[in-house]
Amino acid sequence: MDIQLISKTPDFLKVIWLAARTCKSSKTPQELWRDEPALEEMERIADGIIRSGHTSVLEHCYVTYAVAGVSRSLLAQYTRHRIGISISVQSQRSVSERSDKNGGLYEAVVPHTIESSPEAKQIFLDQLKSIQQCYDRLSELNISKEDARFILPNAAATNFVTTLNLRSLLDVYDKRVRTPGAQWEIKEMIGRFAELAYDEEPWLKRYFISEE
């Protein structure tokens, strides 16, 4: 799994402060934007918003991530979170998984429990190789990529670009990291999303501390 934060709202606190103040000020947003509020004031307002649960103003802040080497199983889970989240995914209709295109075996994610058991790992890898052979044979029969892909497993790796607003990031973190029993791969990805966000906006870290 490789994740990079590639773009974000430049100043979360100032944007949150602006949106919150606009709701209760006689000044225009343009006038407010020219103000220079103290860091402590902006953090106080942001904290009150997050803790109250009235978080619509957080939607004005966004983060965009480049994600590589995650499974289609993770993708199926992640795309259930649709509000405030955008995603552009590598297409199996367009990208061939033939062995002469992918170096011999399509990329796949191996679960930790399987990786830690030599016998289980061998069974898993043998099946991946068998699927690769089937995919190649279908391709040789001039079966299109969009139909040949039906043989590929949930383990098949994929890449995507995703953008979340801050409200949605907090929500998906709560559901996929804090929730007991969250699946390990998506938990790892969302946890990394949070780390990269608060590396850029350190004041956010307190809201992403797992309760485990």
Summarize the structure in short.
The chain is α+β, with helices and mostly antiparallel strands and 212 residues long.
Structure description:
The chain has 212 residues and is α+β, with helices and mostly antiparallel strands. The chain has two domains: 2-88 and 161-208, Gyrase A, domain 2 (2-Layer Sandwich), CATH 3.30.1360; 97-155, no CATH class. It has ten helices and four strands, in the order E-H-H-H-E-H-E-H-H-H-H-E-H-H. Helix 9 (166-178) crosses helix 10. It is elongated and about 70 Å long. The mean pLDDT is 93.
Secondary structure: number of strands: 4
Helix content: 40-55%
Poorly predicted runs are none
- The CATH class of the largest domain: Alpha Beta
Q: Strand portion, in percent?
A: 5-15%
Order of helices and strands: EHHHEHEHHHHEHH
Count of structural domains: 2
Question: Termini distance?
Answer: 23 Å
Features:
212 residues; 2 domains; single chain; 4 strands; alpha+beta; 4-stranded antiparallel beta sheet; Gyrase A, domain 2
Element layout with pairings:
Elements: E1 2-8, H1 12-24, H2 29-33, H3 39-52, E2 62-71, H4 72-78, E3 85-89, H5 99-102, H6 112-115, H7 118-140, H8 145-148, E4 157-165, H9 166-178, H10 184-200
Antiparallel strand pairs: 1-2, 2-4, 3-4
